[in-house]
Amino acid sequence: MFGGKIGPMELLVILAIALLIFGPSKLADLGKGLGEGIKNFKNSMKDGEQSSEEKKS
């Protein structure tokens, strides 16, 4: 039906539904939490690579 791709119209519909369900303030908090989670994940991946390189040396 979608051909395996999500276009801009589908993203707008998903965003509108999320806005109706969660409300603007809760949606902002969810976005902030998601951004912090991604940042922490990237930092821990970088730290893990550095510690594995130190063990090899």
What descriptive keywords fit this protein?
single chain, about 55 residues, mainly alpha, Single alpha-helices involved in coiled-coils or other helix-helix interfaces, 2 helices, about 0% strand, elongated
Instruction: Indicate the percent of residues in helices.
Output: over 70%
Percent range for β-strand residues: under 5%
Based on CA atoms alone, the radius of gyration comes out at 18 Å
Discrete helix count: 2
What's the architecture in CATH terms? Up-down Bundle
Number of strands: 0
The CATH topology corresponds to: Single alpha-helices involved in coiled-coils or other helix-helix interfaces
Helix and strand run: HH
Which structural class do you get from the secondary structure elements? Answer: mainly alpha
Number of domains: 1
Instruction: Give the averaged pLDDT, no decimals.
Output: 84
The CATH class assignment is Mainly Alpha
Q: Characterize the largest beta sheet: strand count, sense, and whether it forms a barrel.
A: none
Principal-axis shape: elongated
Terminal Cα span: 53 Å
Which stretches are poorly predicted, pLDDT < 50 over at least 5 residues? none
Explain what you see:
This protein is an all-alpha fold and 57 residues long. The protein has one domain (8-56): Up-down Bundle (Single alpha-helices involved in coiled-coils or other helix-helix interfaces), CATH 1.20.5. The chain is 84% helix and 0% strand. The protein is elongated and about 50 Å long. The N and C termini lie far apart (53 Å).
